[in-house]
Each structure stands twice: as C-alpha cells, then as structure tokens.
Design a protein that fits this description.
With 260 residues, this protein is α+β, with helices and mostly antiparallel strands. It is 37% helix and 29% strand. Bound molecules: zinc ion.
Length: 260
C-alpha cells in the first residue's frame, strides 16, 4: 500500500466509490477504523481520502463540493502585491504583515538545518535531527498557510476582481535572498487558495503575465524605469516626481489592469 518507506509516506483509500461521511473531530476510515483529528472537519461526504505522513504526524485530505456563497463586495477591483517586506500589500492601502511567529521560526529552521548537516551520515543522531527538522519545517509552512488563509478570505469575500502578478520563480531563484522570500510568501499556496475561494465567494481572479513591469512603472504618469533594485523600497518617478511605497504602487498598477 505504501509507495515507499521513509520520511514521507502517503496512500489513498476509498469505499469502492461509495460516499464516506466525514465531519467533526473523528472520521471512520474504510478498513482502518476510527481516527481522531486535530482540527474539526466540515460535515460532508467524500469518495476518496488521502492519508500522508510528514515526519511523525499523520494527515488526512479529501475533496468535497462547496456551495457558492455570494457575499456582497465592498470593492470592485483589488490589486495585490505579495512580497518581500510584507506578506501582502493591497491597492486599497490595506497591508497584511508577515506574522512575527513566522520570522522567529524561520530563524530556528536555519539553526536546525545547520545542526543537521553537522551530524555524521547514517548516525542515529542524524536520523533524529532529520525528523526534528521535518517537523519544524512543517510547523513553519503551517504558520505561513494560516496567515495566507486570512489574506485570501478577506480578498475573496470583499472584492469582485482580484488581480495578482504571476511569478517568474525560476529566474528569481538565482538570487539567493529572494529565493528565501519567495519560499516565505508561498506564492503557489496563495494562488491555490485564491482559486478555490474565488469560486466559493463568487469573485474573479486575474493573473497578470509575469513580464508586466508593475514594480517599474509609475502609477501616476505610466513611465517605466529601466531597472529597480530590490533594496529600493520607495519608488520615486524621475519624470513626474511621484513618490510611493513600491509594494503599494505595484498593487495599484495591477488593479488598473483590470479596469483598463
Ligand atoms: Zn511618473
């Protein structure tokens, strides 16, 4: 049943296509029996359940149908810059900062990773540190996921159109510090959450081509800069003398694309 033995195992179970009821704090899995869950599950049914193990924790995942909840939208269009300094900056001026717990845990992750590489290969200590590292890695990504859920809930409930910029990850990965920050803000998780929540709340997601120079274009006069280093946190236009936080400016430029 297991694909491979090791750190991360996973398998799927079904009841021959019959609906499996889920909900609350425990689930009756076909052939396995009752298992307790850490988080409460929505009361619904599914036909297939995936079980996976990350380090010493077990996870269950399943798909289910969601009814569309039409919520009244307070804003027509919002551009969102997800980035380096803040978790998300919205063209409306709202800012979601990176959680403090996240920054602190990233530091711990770096320490654990350094200590792991110092352990002798094949040793018992190395095996233990591997599990410790995997568990902490998982904790960090859960903190990140959790804070992204707050952003995407707010976006999809309150805005009719959400505009984000696609990321050229492979090109950006060459910059080591930036690779860190891309991992930090979890672009794919962000986009994945937006996609299903847009369906749920009846809003529209617009993903803009990665080459659209939103951070290099002046949001007042539209003139473009040739280059803009990541250390320049404030955008100032040489042409019209407009000065603005670069993340906010990028978000405003994205929101304009939907209106154009
Ligand atoms: Zn300008």
């Amino acid at each position: 049943m297991f694909k491979k033995k090791g750190q991360n195992d996973s398998f799927t179970i079904d009841a021959g296509g019959k609906p499996i009821p889920v909900g609350g704090l425990r689930v009756k899995l076909p052939t396995i029996g009752w298992v307790k869950t850490y988080e409460g599950l929505p009361h619904t049914t599914t036909t297939k359940i995936s079980i996976s193990r990350i380090a010493d924790d077990w996870y269950i995942a399943f798909a289910y149908e969601v009814d569309c909840v039409e919520s009244p939208k307070t804003h027509d269009v919002v551009g969102v810059d997800i980035g380096v300094k803040e978790l998300a900056t919205l063209s409306t001026g709202a800012v979601f900062p990176n959680p403090k717990a996240y920054k602190k845990n990233i530091q711990k992750l770096k320490r654990l990773s350094a200590s792991h590489t110092r352990k002798a290969k094949g040793s018992n200590n190395r095996h233990k540190s591997k599990i410790k590292l995997a568990l902490h890695h998982n904790r960090v990504s859960n903190i990140r996921k959790d804070s992204l859920h707050k952003v995407t809930n707010y976006l999809c409930k309150n805005h009719a159109v959400i505009v984000i910029e696609d990321l050229n990850v492979s090109g950006m990965m060459q910059n080591h510090k930036l690779a860190q920050s891309i991992a930090d803000c979890g672009f794919y998780e962000f986009k994945r959450q937006l996609e299903y929540k847009c369906k749920k709340f009846g809003s529209t997601l617009m993903v803009v081509d990665r080459w659209y120079p939103s951070s290099k274009t002046c949001s007042r006069c539209g003139c473009k800069k040739d280059s803009l280093s990541l250390s320049e946190r404030v955008y100032s236009c040489e042409h019209c003398r407009y000065v603005l936080d670069r993340d906010l400016k990028a978000a405003i430029n994205l929101s304009r694309l939907a209106k154009a």
